[in-house]
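Example 9 (inverse folding). The structure is encoded as follows.
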């Protein structure tokens, strides 16, 4: 039996049945395989990742195809067998390099091992009927919202939410982009090197193909495996970060010597970028709600050689008088539904529910209201999310400004013009929808007057 597909199946089961995060389940499974001395080549690891992330991303579409051919209701199919079907259908529909016969035969073997004879017959019967025409049938659905949901594997409530503020074509474009493979993007640590030198080192020493990104401190890597084990990473020459995430500290634009608060800092990507922009001069106070997450910020800062970050385990919704008007600049990258990063974290689609919007916006409002009091007069605050729903973004800002007349929106006009022309939706707010290059983000800069 194909051990690679079996590892992928176990990960999918963990994600589906125990609501594990796919990236953590994948890392754990690979560590276990190495511990058990299973020989896994980089190609094997790539194939496991492809099956896991692809199957999770396309789950809704795949389930529609399974329903078409299964006489057994989805809820009645054992989780093991259902995930055998899902990963096999994914290979048949979306992986050109995998022959259908291989996907069917390996799926049947796994069904026999994780079910019984009847299970393998059931899987065999369904998989033999599946082909690319099934995707074309879904594309003929007349109701536009249902069609987009089923052809882009997006929960219908998310499609409806996006439809409130976008044209149907824009909604489809956003949903399609959520299934693209994310670019592997890194941020150059300008305290230790520069983009040109790092590009040369990665290309010559590590044999990695490197492209320049839109933003000057960022590079795009192709075919980079085990990047965290590379010497340049361990020496703190760069960190892994998407360009849209890097826009957020750029918009806040902290200067050397300033006092800055990052109220929702973990895992530390934006915190450490601010420290680099500040040339490691001044002070950044970095909070997070959980101690283990605060330690991630410390660990990242240490690797990058940053010394100006002071971490603290703290709830940003709880006001403390001692911080009143203490900071020159504040970053509030608040907890959100994460709808802008689905191509990187596809599990979010299946874990989030419509009622989560009310719960998360309550927290977002409390953080903004509380932390705004910590800003000096004349100081600047950036509110950001990796989400693209109006309720989490524009609505929060508009309500805050209504209640806080001593704040105003500051236009953002000094970032690379090309980036704005390609991706940004408005002048007032920076709203980046997920696309072929970046994740989706919302950024708004406020000034205290």
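The amino acid assigned to each position is listed next.
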């Amino acid at each position: 039996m194909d051990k690679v597909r079996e590892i992928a199946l176990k990960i999918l089961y963990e994600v589906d049945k125990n609501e594990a995060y796919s990236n953590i389940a994948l890392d754990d499974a690979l560590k276990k395989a190495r511990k058990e001395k299973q020989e896994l080549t980089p190609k094997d690891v790539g194939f496991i990742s492809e099956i896991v992330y692809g199957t999770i991303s396309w789950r809704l579409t795949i389930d529609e195809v399974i329903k078409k051919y299964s006489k057994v209701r989805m809820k009645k199919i054992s989780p093991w067998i259902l995930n055998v079907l899902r990963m096999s259908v994914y290979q048949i529909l979306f992986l050109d390099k995998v022959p259908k016969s291989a996907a069917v035969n390996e799926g049947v073997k796994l069904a026999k091992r994780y079910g019984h004879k009847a299970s393998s017959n059931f899987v065999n019967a369904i998989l033999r009927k599946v082909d690319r025409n099934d995707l074309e049938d879904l594309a003929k659905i007349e109701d536009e919202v249902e069609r987009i949901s089923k052809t882009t594997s997006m929960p219908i409530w998310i499609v409806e939410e996006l439809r409130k503020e976008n044209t149907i074509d824009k909604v489809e474009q956003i949903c399609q982009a959520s299934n693209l493979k994310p670019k592997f993007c890194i941020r150059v640590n300008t305290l230790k090197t520069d983009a040109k030198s790092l590009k040369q080192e990665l290309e010559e020493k590590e044999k990695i193909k490197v492209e320049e990104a839109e933003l000057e401190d960022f590079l795009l890597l192709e075919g980079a495996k085990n990047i965290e084990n590379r010497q340049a990473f361990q020496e703190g020459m760069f960190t892994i970060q998407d360009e849209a995430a890097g826009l957020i500290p750029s918009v806040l634009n902290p200067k050397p010597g300033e006092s800055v608060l990052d109220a929702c800092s973990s895992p530390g990507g934006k915190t450490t970028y601010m420290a680099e922009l500040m040339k490691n001069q001044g002070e950044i106070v970095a909070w997070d709600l959980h101690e283990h997450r605060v330690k991630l910020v410390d660990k990242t800062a240490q690797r990058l050689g940053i010394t100006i970050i002071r971490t603290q385990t703290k709830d940003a919704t709880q006001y403390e008088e001692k911080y009143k008007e203490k900071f020159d600049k504040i970053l509030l990258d608040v907890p959100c539904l994460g709808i802008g990063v689905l191509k990187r974290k596809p599990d979010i689609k299946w874990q989030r529910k419509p009622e989560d919007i009310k719960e998360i916006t309550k927290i977002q409002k409390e953080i903004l209201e509380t932390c705004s009091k910590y800003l000096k007069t004349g100081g600047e605050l950036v509110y950001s999310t990796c989400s693209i729903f109006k309720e989490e973004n524009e609505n929060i800002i508009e309500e805050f400004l209504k209640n806080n007349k001593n704040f105003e929106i500051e236009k953002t006009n000094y970032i690379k013009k090309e980036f704005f022309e390609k991706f940004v939706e408005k002048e007032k707010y920076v709203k980046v929808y997920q696309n072929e290059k970046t994740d989706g983000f919302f950024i708004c800069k406020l000034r205290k007057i």
